[in-house]
């Protein structure tokens, strides 16, 4: 037996859901932190809540990350720079002296060669101390009493920077050397030659400096103590002091390393992925059991799992970073964004699952979960009350206040005083709150990528000033008023049996826009006594009536309305028949003996696929038929509502919609009350 198109759609949805699940696991696997899960949960300055802990094996007490960083910083700051004495530069200076002397010696002056040789020898002795290159950026940062190394003949000599040869000393040496020359002319020429040749002959050696620095850094020891197997580490109720916290952190690291080395396999990763799979499976099961309509559509699970994996990826990056706090990651975007498309339960449950997965690797899991779930739940509830974009800043403020308040209360509860509050976290809370405002531009991205329509967009589309609705009000005012009444009825029914009232109202406003193509053929737009159908055959009349569905779809596509609205136009009559003209044609066919084509009198469908589409079908038919009632008493209205909806159910119009008999019964009751309210008897004032 060949598969139907419905089976193919279900198979496609299942494949896409499975693909989204596997991609989510792959992303989580790629971003899994290197630290392994530890079975004990503890916090600094908090009581130890587990049984007495003994060292399961010998392990070293590692220095804390801050201690290691301080040591590294101290070594880097105190490491002396190396300046290398260069013999080639000294030789170049001597040659420069000789050239300057020869160039400046006049022919009339007696040779001063002996004085020159004497001066050069003495000057070379001075330069052998090494004239440092002080214009270098590294040398500029050296303080006078800092130690430096002078490298000469492959030997390092440690001296203070102020002890090194300076320009002033060189100048003084030149004065002393040339001062011993008796001939004033020779003395002046030689002194001038020596001064012009002054330049550094000991340059900064970055390569050797870095080698010495690396050598010193390698001497830093990460271990500062040892705990032997069987040693009591901490007992229940003991406070996790800084020293004990350091021991516990060392045990945690050693434990993770031993798990891998002993088994030769990353069983901890397998276990963590198993927990994560269970949590994601719980999320999928929740959607399946509570929102089957969303489960059957592959897009919701794809969006939900995408947000879970993105939140995990960014959070684990923050966990492994010293520069960013985990509280700066706006995981609250997940429920705030989902609330724009789904109900509060799906949004919050997805967020809770996401937080649980992240908490597996968070530094303080319990604190993280309480702060995140409490603060973001408040913000999501606040946002759920209104989808106006004007609440953007207010939502961000609620996020910040929620984080700050819960954090302060948690800290006081844990420490019993205010001193444990880390004020830096308030800055990260503010960044998180501001980033949560990204949810509003992300709405448009999700709408484009997943083909969704947010409640914010639906509210904008339901505005009667929208171009298509304004055109409907002008060309078919009766239809426009009918649409308004249907929208009101839909909202009332959605309130009684559940459903997206914003989507329903918007769809109801557009469901009959196709009628403005030929408005005069629809009773709500006709002038009494002037019915153009009187001059048409039943088949032609039925074609015009049915065609308003096709024309409505065309109008919506031209104005680029979402597919969600178009689906309501397609299904609001389902596969029902135009009964008035069908009956008329049937009678004519019986009189003439001709055969009747039922397809000419049937709407193309499909039948409603959602509760909202079924509600629109019921409200539309009841509102339209109520206009033809001659008596508006309770009995007449009850008969009308019961007859219409029972007929639709008998035709199978609700078979594909997730609506129960109880829902239909409640919808009837709500519609009866609403119609009675519209057409209630008024007191005569004549």
CATH third-level topology of the largest domain? Hypothetical protein af1432
Spans of at least 5 consecutive residues whose pLDDT stays below 50 are 1-10, 682-686
Radius of gyration: 43 Å
Specify the overall morphology. Answer: elongated
Mean pLDDT score, rounded? 83
> What summary fits the major beta sheet?
4 strands, mixed
Tell me which CATH architecture of the largest domain applies here. Answer: Orthogonal Bundle
Distance between the termini: 72 Å
Order of strands, main sheet, comes to 5-4-3-6
**CATH class division of the largest domain:** Mainly Alpha
> What fraction, in percent, of the residue positions are helical?
55-70%
Structural class: mainly alpha
Q: Could you tell me the strand content as a percent range?
A: under 5%
What does this molecule look like?
The chain is mainly α. It folds into 3 domains: 74-217, no CATH class; 267-450, Arp2/3 complex 21 kDa subunit ARPC3 (Orthogonal Bundle), CATH 1.10.1760; 456-678, Hypothetical protein af1432 (Orthogonal Bundle). The chain has helices at residues 5-30, 65-78, 87-104, 113-127, 137-140, 167-179, 184-196, 206-218, 242-263, 267-290, 292-296, 298-319, 333-338, 344-359, 365-384, 392-415, 424-436, 439-450, 455-461, 467-475, 477-497, 501-510, 538-558, 563-571, 579-592, 611-626, 634-650, 661-678; strands at 53-54, 59-62, 81-85, 147-152, 155-160, 202-204, 223-227, 232-234. The strands form 3 sheets. A 4-stranded mixed sheet has the order 5-4-3-6. Strands 1-8 form a two-stranded antiparallel ribbon. Helix 20 packs across helix 21 (477-497), helix 22 packs across helix 26 (611-626) and helix 23 (538-558) packs antiparallel against helix 24.
């Amino acid at each position: 037996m060949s598969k139907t198109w419905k089976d193919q759609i279900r198979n496609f949805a299942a494949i896409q859901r499975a693909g989204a699940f596997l991609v989510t696991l792959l992303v989580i696997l790629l971003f899994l932190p290197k630290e392994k899960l530890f079975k004990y949960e503890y916090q600094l300055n908090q009581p130890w809540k587990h049984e007495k802990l003994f060292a399961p094996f010998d392990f070293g007490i590692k220095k804390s990350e801050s201690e290691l960083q301080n040591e590294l910083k101290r070594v880097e700051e105190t490491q002396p720079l190396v300046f290398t004495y260069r013999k080639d530069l000294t030789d170049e200076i001597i040659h420069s002296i000789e050239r300057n002397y020869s160039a400046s010696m006049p022919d009339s002056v007696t040779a001063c060669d002996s004085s020159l040789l004497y001066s050069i020898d003495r000057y070379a002795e001075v330069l052998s101390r090494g004239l440092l290159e002080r214009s270098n950026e590294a040398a500029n940062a050296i303080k006078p009493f800092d130690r430096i190394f002078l490298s000469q003949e492959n030997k390092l000599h440690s001296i203070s920077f102020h002890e090194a040869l300076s320009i002033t000393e060189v100048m003084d040496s030149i004065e002393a050397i040339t001062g011993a020359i008796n001939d004033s002319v020779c003395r002046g020429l030689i002194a001038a030659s020596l001064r012009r040749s002054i330049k550094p002959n000991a340059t900064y050696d970055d390569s050797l400096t870095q080698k010495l620095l690396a050598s010193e850094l390698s001497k830093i020891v990460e271990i500062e103590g040892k705990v032997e197997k069987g040693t009591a580490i901490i007992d229940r109720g003991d406070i996790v002091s800084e020293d004990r916290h350091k021991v516990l952190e060392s045990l945690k690291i050693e434990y993770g390393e031993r798990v891998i080395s002993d088994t030769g396999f990353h069983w901890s990763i397998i276990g963590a992925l198993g927990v994560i799979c269970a949590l994601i499976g719980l999320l999928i099961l929740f959607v399946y059991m509570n929102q089957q309509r969303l489960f059957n559509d592959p897009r919701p699970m794809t969006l939900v799992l995408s947000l879970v994996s993105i939140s995990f990826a960014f959070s684990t990056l923050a966990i492994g970073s010293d520069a960013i706090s985990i509280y700066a990651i706006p995981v609250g975007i997940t429920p705030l964004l989902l609330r724009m498309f789904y109900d509060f339960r799906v949004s919050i449950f997805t967020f809770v699952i996401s937080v649980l997965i992240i908490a597996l690797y968070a530094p303080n899991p319990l604190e993280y979960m309480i702060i995140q779930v409490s603060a973001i739940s408040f913000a999501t509830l606040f946002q759920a009350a209104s989808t106006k974009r004007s609440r953007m800043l207010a939502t961000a403020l609620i996020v910040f206040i929620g984080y700050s308040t819960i954090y302060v209360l948690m800290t006081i509860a844990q420490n019993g005083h205010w001193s444990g509050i880390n004020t830096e976290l308030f800055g990260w809370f503010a960044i998180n709150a501001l980033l949560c405002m990204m949810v509003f531009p992300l709405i448009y991205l999700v709408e484009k990528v997943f083909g969704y329509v947010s409640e914010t967009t639906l509210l904008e589309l339901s505005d009667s000033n929208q171009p298509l609705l304004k055109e409907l009000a002008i060309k078919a005012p009766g239809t426009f008023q009918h649409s308004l009444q249907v929208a009101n009825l839909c909202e009332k029914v959605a309130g009684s049996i559940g459903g997206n009232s914003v989507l329903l109202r918007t769809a109801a406003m557009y469901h009959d826009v196709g009628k403005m193509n030929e408005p005069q053929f629809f009773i709500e737009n006709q002038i009494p006594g002037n019915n153009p159908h009187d001059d048409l055959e039943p088949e032609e009349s039925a074609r015009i009536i049915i065609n308003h569905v096709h024309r409505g779809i065309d109008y919506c596509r031209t104005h680029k309305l979402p597919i969600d609205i178009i689906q309501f136009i397609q299904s609001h009559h389902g596969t029902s028949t135009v009964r008035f003209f069908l009956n008329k044609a049937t009678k004519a066919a019986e009189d003439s003996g001709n055969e009747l084509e039922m397809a000419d009198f049937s709407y193309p469908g499909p039948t409603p696929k959602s509760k909202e589409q079924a509600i629109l079908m019921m409200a539309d038919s009841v509102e339209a038929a109520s206009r033809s009632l001659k008596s508006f008493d309770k009995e007449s209205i009850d008969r009308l509502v019961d007859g219409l909806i029972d007929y639709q159910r008998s035709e199978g119009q609700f078979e594909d919609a997730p609506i129960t008999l109880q829902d239909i019964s409640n919808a009837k009751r709500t519609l009866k009350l609403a119609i009675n309210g519209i057409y209630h008897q008024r007191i005569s004032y004549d």
